[in-house]
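### Sample
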Amino acid sequence: GVLHEDLRLLLDTALPPKRKKVVLGVGDAKMGAAVQEELGVQCQTGGVVAELMRGIRLHFPALVRGLTAQSAAKAQLGLGHSYSRAKVKFNVHRVDNMIIQSISLLDQLDKDINTFSMRVREWYGYHFPELIKIVPENSMYCQVAKFIGNRRELSEESLEGLEEIVMDSAKAQAILEASRSSMGMDISPLDLINIESFSRRVISLSEYRRGLQEYLRSKMSQVAPSLSALIGEVVGARLISHAGSLTNLAKYPASTVQILGAEKALFRALKTRGNTPKYGLIFHSTFIGRAAAKNKGRISRYLANKCTIASRIDCFSEVPTSVFGDKLREQVEERLAFYETGEPPRKNLEVMKEAVVEANEVVAEVKRKQEKKEKKKKKREKRRLEALAAAAEEAENSVMETEENDVGAKKKKKKKKQEAEGDEPEPEPEENGLEEEEEDEQQPLPKKKRKLTVEPEQEEEEKKKKKKKKKKAVAQDLEED
């Protein structure tokens, strides 16, 4: 709604002084509304104006001197780059792209692990078919198959290892008894090696999936803590992924969030004039599963409303906190209890006031911690700079000492050479001759010169006296302290 200063200046210079009857043609409706609001100039934005703007844009290099098609293409490319950079958030800790990629990879891993585990079951089932009923879990079945190998080699000594994998002594004993009376066929060592290597791959994939889930939880706690506290990390990540970004999810109304993920069913119901779906991705939440069949639609509508509030708080808050998510979750719990027992829940205004107070405390604590970290960082940087300066000074001093030593060594060498050649050193000029003494007696010296002519022995005695006085003064000060 605020007109840019450059555009305002351009319009002020381009338009005539009397603007009352001037009509501008503007390609963008928003820009036209802004111009009309700021400058009071009537703007037309539809019909012929759009065609004129398209023609001007197409023939712009021919209309402007010095502008070539190549430079116009470069300008368009630069504008596209700047727009893309503006769309990306610069806070690396709050990037929702990583959540979208990780939840997509998590879903793909679930499908792949399920397919590979079924393959291991079929492959190893020829040799030990009874194991499928005893160990139904996929990852545990792959671990047991890798551990057992050939069922004929399974003995009482292997019970401890089986108990560690299965986490149940009764199951381990059942596996041992089933291996002794199994109906499976014998298998060659080469086939067993292939089955074990494939089982190892499936186990590593399962471990990677667990690590990826932990990574997703940590990212959701940084990017959308309120949404993850309300509906869970996985369901919240699926909502963000389906919407495209956290900002898009925050822009959606509650009715859209409620059926997000059930678009096919919605359009099919609209086409056949049937019942529209009551829930989409939020069906995976525990709240809808806990609600009675007659209350599932109502609780899904209420939950979608709270999810919209949580996503907007996460998107537009400066310091992300999970306080609002916890309070919203409590509200959904109270609404569930209201459907079952009839106990009236708290009002939304009261809950939000409590949440605001707690959130302010949490934000203040977070800011305090950040300030402490910054102070520590500055101190560390200061110490590092001081250490570097001290090291540089030491290096300079060592260089100076080496240079002085070199100069002294050169002088000694010169003296030795002179002594070897037989040259006598030049006599130094004698001080205080007879004529000088006579002149000194005749003319009285000024005070400054008198001070200079004091004998060196007297100067040393005065210095010693001053040092003794200083030492006495320091000792007295120490005694007083």
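DSSP finds 23 helices and two strands in the chain. This sample (Nucleolar protein 56) is used throughout the tutorial notebook.
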